[in-house]
Design brief:
It is built from 24 helices and 15 strands. It is an alpha/beta fold. Strand 5, helix 8 and strand 6 form a beta-alpha-beta unit. The longest helix is centred in the last third of the chain and has 22 residues. The relative contact order is 0.13. The chain binds 6-O-phosphono-beta-D-fructofuranose.
Length: 589
């Protein structure tokens, strides 16, 4: 990175926008234009490519290391112009600047939204951000880097073997206990960066309150070489605290300390438990030494926290240098969004396309299809990021939304998905926009030395076969196969011709990176964070609260006495719930 980049990194202060009513997107000229385009819209990817040889080039964009091809999307210049008008009219760029500056754009919780600050580079001599970030009286840069240094120091101790368990053995397994954002991010990143994990170290992730989860994850572990990280922003989450108590119980039992003196038990906890939380007082009450706790701040949403201390398990696994590259990847995309005109701004364009598909072409879900096995948890991670953020029915001023919001995100890595659900994407009746993600260089290149005696020659690079599928699928989805093409292959029965016809015009976005480095992974995550931001801003919703998960949590606590068999509590339930709990009690041995 050059000095010049940091000089550009001035975060402009701006007037408060967050308290004002959001713009109703449906009232904008851009939206009205889109309405009229959609009314007579007949997608024709074959025709569009035939008539415009420059289409692929025109709709391919670069954001840091990510090459993003939108040309197989259902867009025309007219659509893109109207979408960009909507982005301008709803203030996407201004709200992004407000977020970077620490304004309280999380209105319903009255909080700043500053995950972008987690990856701002450290102020070092010659590379000083021109405007240090101070928000609500807090020197954000200083605090972020002080915590990072503490995490790095601890991780290095574990990696080097300087940190030992209570019996003096070095740590071999790190078990992260957390749920939602305190689990999905770390586990996804750990899986994605497996090739960077230090040999001899392993991380595991316990999240579910189903006791089977912690049982299975710890069954074969040696307590003397196991370190638990209790990761919880609030340190009040039922699942995580229950699992943390079960882990502590497991440690004492397996070390033969169940009946030991309190001091001995405490010593064991001090060497085998650390915590990550914004509530350090609660960490201490649990019995974890605050010295061994890593903090973060209420301006980091759970689903935006993977690059905070919540990633401590991954820092231990991959080390400081790789983690720094990971953060640099996020920052490169933040900079892309901040400095690139909307017309070439990749997350903004992708967010706009999603609005087009959702609000005008009737798409309800969105597939994410990574063609790299290491991203096998990416769709699960994105489900929280996108659906907890944008699954909202009121806007940030409390008024009802004026259009559909949210998309159902789902997916599996290719080629597994091809043999499962792609049928529906190719030939079903629903429109399912899909993001295809891949890397040019595999972490584990392997050759098929034997071949199959047919198309696969001996010595074939298997990644080439893999990527042939990536390219073939996006091609098939875009261009399909006409009835005439089916007939030309010799099919004569018209019923079969119909079954073998592919309509095409199924929109995809292709994302290609050189390889799945820590930096590229950070770039991919930041890309989706800002796609979510773009859509949320257009819909006028607070993408940073999550009130919708609260009711179920409250009711679980209220229902517990009934499930334990308390008759009065059982009688107080609605007839369906009462009957179900009664059935459970009858079946439970
Ligand atoms: O229940 C939803 C949620 O609040 C998520 O937003 C969050 O990531 C998760 O629970 C875990 O919360 P915590 O980190 O406070 O345990």
């Amino acid at each position: 990175m050059t000095r010049g980049l940091y000089v550009l990194n001035v975060i402009p202060r701006r007037t408060e926008v967050t308290e004002s009513a959001p713009v109703d997107p449906t009232s904008t000229e851009g939206w009205k234009k889109l309405d009229s385009i959609a009314a007579g819209f007949t997608p024709d990817l074959r025709g569009w490519f035939d008539s415009d040889p420059g289409r692929a080039e025109q709709y391919t964009f670069q954001a840091a290391d990510l090459t993003v091809d939108l040309s197989k999307g259902l867009v025309t210049d007219e659509v893109v112009a109207a979408l960009l008008q909507v982005a301008k009219d709803t203030g996407v760029a201004e709200r992004f600047q407000a977020m970077l500056a620490g304004e309280h754009i999380n209105v319903t919780e009255d909080r700043a939204v500053l995950h972008t600050a987690l990856r701002r580079p450290k102020a070092t001599e010659g590379l000083v951000p021109a405007a240090p970030l101070t928000v609500d009286g807090q020197d954000v840069d200083a605090d972020v880097h002080a915590t990072l240094d503490k995490v790095y120091g601890f991780a290095e101790q574990v990696r080097s073997g300087a940190w030992t368990g209570v019996t003096g053995k070095r740590i071999e397994t790190v078990v992260n206990i957390g749920i939602g954002g305190s689990d999905l991010g770390p586990v996804m990143v750990y899986e994605a960066l497996k090739p960077y994990v230090q040999p001899g170290l392993e991380a595991r992730f316990v999240s579910n309150i189903d006791p089977a989860d912690i049982y299975e994850k710890t069954a074969d572990l040696d307590p003397e070489t196991t370190l638990f990280i209790v990761a919880s922003k609030t340190f009040g989450t039922l699942e995580t605290l229950t699992n943390a108590r079960l882990a502590r119980q497991w440690l004492w039992e397996r070390l033969g300390l169940t009946d030991a003196a309190d001091d001995e038990k405490k010593n064991a906890v001090a060497k085998h438990f650390v915590a990550v939380s914004t509530a350090l007082d609660k960490v201490e009450a649990f019995g974890i030494d605050p010295e061994n706790a890593f903090g973060f701040w209420d301006w980091v949403g759970g689903r935006y926290s993977v690059d905070s201390a919540i990633g401590t398990s991954v820092v231990i696994a991959i080390g400081k240098e790789n983690w720094e590259q990971f953060l640099a990847g996020f920052h490169a995309i933040d900079e892309h969004v901040r400095t690139t005109p909307l017309e070439q701004n990749v997350p903004v364009l992708m967010g706009l396309l999603n609005v087009w598909y959702t609000n005008f072409l009737g798409a309800q879900s969105h597939a994410v299809l990574p063609y790299t096995q290491y991203l096998h948890r990416f769709a699960a991670y994105l489900q929280q990021l996108t659906m907890e953020s944008n699954g909202k029915r009121v806007r940030w001023d409390g008024s009802p939304v004026t259009t559909e919001t949210g998309e159902v995100f789902w997916g599996e890595p290719g080629t597994n998905g091809q043999h499962a659900f792609y049928q529906l994407i190719h030939q079903g009746t629903r429109l399912i926009p899909a993001d295809f993600i891949t890397v040019a260089n595999p972490a584990r290149p392997l050759k098929d030395e034997t071949g199959d005696g047919k198309g696969v020659a001996p010595g074939t690079d298997v990644h080439t076969l893999f990527l042939a599928n990536f390219f073939a699928q996006t091609k098939a989805l875009a261009f399909g196969k006409s009835a005439d093409e089916v007939r030309a292959e010799g099919t004569t029965d018209e019923g079969i011709v119909a079954a073998r016809t592919f309509p095409g015009n199924k929109p995809t976005t292709s994302i290609i990176a050189p390889e799945l480095t820590p930096s590229v992974l950070g770039q991919l995550i930041a890309l989706y964070e800002h796609i979510v931001f773009t859509e949320g801003t257009i819909w006028g919703i607070d993408s940073f609260d999550q009130w919708g998960v609260e009711l179920g949590k409250q009711l679980a606590l209220q229902v517990t006495p009934a499930v334990e068999g308390d008759q009065a509590a059982l009688d107080a339930q609605d007839p369906s719930t009462k009957a179900l709990i009664a059935k459970y009690l009858e079946l439970r041995k």
